[in-house]
């Protein structure tokens, strides 16, 4: 690995407001949420613009335009709270909701909404508190968005807490909560902002990724263990009412059975219905059943196509209507009769149960490896290198709807280990990077495209394998233009992995005898500091590395 020739510029400042973990914050979740917190905040709305909070509660900014005219960090805001007076506080946190709005927490449980003006310029940047309120126990701001809904400006903020769980006697004794708070301006020109909605999700692990959609209508979470919305008292009353209604529901409207060739539907008829009152329309993909002049009893798209000309119906002696549908695709098992219709009940006979159980037998075995001499045996865990082993079995990616509070999309990530997140376009949700085999793939969420909600936008070759070998890594990041990825250790060392670039001269691989057209450079920088690294951010041209007492800039653009 080549040493980095770019110059690192230290910028002196007051010490960062680092908060050490207390004795009662001893779990892995506390370490992930607060012990590994990134104290350096990148403002993606403006190029090469970073912020941090120092020990005096001052929000400090460094905006880089020319490396030759590097300025000292400047104070843009001061927290009203005396940070040293609160014993159980967390680290101060912030998120840039838009080009002119900032959400800020002092770590004591108070949330601030700041109108900042155009940031990165001392002439136009002026931070003004528009809203501040105590919201319970201390939290950190995980994400926030600014949007307009019903002609009113709103901000949605995601607050992360690790809280004591008295009911958890076998686990860590803690649970993780994500509070989704929506704050909106008053109606009819009222400039005051107030909370209009508070929702809480609870889980048993700190999420790797949690972000609100730009419209404020949904939420995406990547986590090792699932999150669920906690019910308020009003929600519980509504659910109890729904349960009573469901308990009062009558028997199923119809029953249906199937064989490999056909589907049989049975409907109980009212006493006054005669044969001439029944009208049934068959088509290749749908069915419509009407009694007298009433609205259709059954109507909709069938699960699969039928031979509509061969479909029949009869009235049986017990005054029931029996409809026979002939499957066009023989052997196809239907999982429902009419798509989306839950008013019917499927009846499976014992012979079908036996057939299904038999067809699944090959998936199970009482013997761990019943045929060890078989060609292409399963992967042997002993053949894996140490850096291939994951700490977790796998995570899941979920999308929650803000109105129904239910999961609309869920993807099991399996062994695709979460690596880091990055903002490529501040008007979109943050991207997340996953390990795929030896590579690392960057995915951009698109909340407005339900059929293509996650788009693969970049690949970092071999980064998945390389990062796994770095036992002391603390932070990972990549440039918004995908030109390089980088990671840092807890102390001093920073590793940079450039994307492959064309060579100016011809190079041959002597072992394989082929010409090499591109080479990807790997660089390393060693910081002249013995303090631990507390913050790490990447832009298209520079890396910003924050230690307790120094902010380093590393120039890593393609001209280097």
From TrEMBL:
One of its GO terms (cellular component) is nucleus. It is found in: Cytoplasm; Nucleus. Residues 249-338 form the CS domain. The keyword Cytoplasm applies. It holds the Pfam family CS. PANTHER family: CHRONIC MYELOGENOUS LEUKEMIA TUMOR ANTIGEN 66, NUDC DOMAIN-CONTAINING PROTEIN 1. This is NudC domain-containing protein 1. Keywords: Cytoplasm, Nucleus. It comes from the Eukaryota. The gene is NUDCD1.
């Amino acid at each position: 690995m080549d040493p980095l020739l770019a110059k690192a510029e230290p910028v002196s400042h007051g010490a960062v407001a680092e908060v050490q973990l207390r004795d009662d914050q001893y779990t892995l979740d506390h370490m992930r949420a607060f012990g590994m917190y990134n104290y350096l905040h990148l403002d993606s709305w403006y190029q090469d613009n970073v912020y941090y909070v120092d020990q005096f509660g001052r929000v400090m900014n460094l905006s880089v335009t020319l490396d030759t005219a590097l300025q000292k960090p400047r104070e843009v805001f001061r927290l009203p709270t005396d940070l040293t007076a609160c014993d159980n506080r967390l680290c101060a946190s912030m998120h840039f909701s838009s080009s002119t709005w900032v959400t800020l927490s002092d770590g004591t449980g108070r949330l601030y909404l700041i109108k900042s003006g155009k940031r990165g310029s001392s002439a136009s940047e002026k931070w003004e508190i528009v809203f501040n309120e105590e919201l319970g126990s201390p939290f950190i701001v995980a994400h926030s968005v600014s949007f307009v809904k019903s002609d009113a400006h709103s901000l949605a903020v995601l607050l992360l807490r690790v809280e004591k769980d008295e009911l958890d006697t076998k686990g860590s004794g803690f649970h993780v909560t994500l509070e989704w708070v929506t704050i909106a301006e008053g109606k009819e020109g009222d400039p005051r902002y107030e909370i209009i909605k508070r929702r809480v999700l609870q889980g048993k692990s700190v999420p790797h990724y949690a972000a609100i959609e730009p419209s404020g209508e949904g939420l995406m979470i990547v986590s090792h263990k699932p999150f669920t919305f906690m019910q308020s008292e009003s929600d519980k009353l509504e659910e109890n009412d729904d349960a009573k209604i469901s308990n009062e529901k009558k028997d199923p409207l119809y029953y249906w059975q199937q064989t490999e060739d056909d589907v049989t539907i049975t409907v109980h008829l009212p006493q006054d219905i005669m044969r001439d009152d029944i009208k049934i329309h068959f088509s290749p993909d749908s069915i419509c059943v009407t009694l007298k002049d009433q609205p259709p009893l059954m109507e909709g798209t069938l699960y699969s196509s039928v031979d509509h000309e061969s479909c029949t119906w009869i009235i049986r002696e017990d005054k029931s209507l029996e409809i026979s549908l002939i499957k066009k695709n023989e052997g196809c098992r239907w999982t429902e009769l009419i798509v989306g219709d839950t008013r019917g009940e499927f009846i499976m006979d014992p012979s079908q149960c036996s057939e299904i159980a038999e067809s699944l037998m090959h998936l199970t075995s009482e013997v761990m490896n019943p045929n060890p001499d078989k060609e292409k045996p399963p992967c042997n865990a002993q053949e894996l290198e140490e850096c291939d082993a994951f700490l977790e079995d796998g995570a899941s990616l979920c999308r929650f709807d803000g109105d129904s509070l239910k999961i609309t999309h869920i993807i099991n990530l399996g062994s695709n280990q979460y690596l880091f997140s990055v903002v490529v376009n501040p008007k979109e949700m943050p991207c997340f990077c996953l390990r795929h085999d030896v590579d690392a793939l960057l995915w951009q969420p698109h909340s407005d495209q339900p059929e293509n909600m996650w788009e693969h936008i970049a690949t970092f070759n071999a980064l998945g394998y390389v990062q796994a070998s770095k036992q002391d890594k603390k932070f990972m990041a990549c440039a918004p233009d995908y030109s390089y990825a980088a990671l840092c250790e807890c102390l001093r060392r920073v590793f940079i992995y450039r994307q492959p670039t064309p060579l100016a001269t011809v190079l041959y691989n002597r072992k394989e005898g082929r010409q090499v057209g591109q080479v990807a450079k790997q660089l390393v920088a060693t910081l002249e500091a013995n303090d631990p690294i507390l913050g790490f951010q990447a832009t298209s041209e520079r890396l910003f590395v924050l230690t307790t007492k120094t902010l380093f800039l590393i120039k890593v653009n393609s001209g280097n």
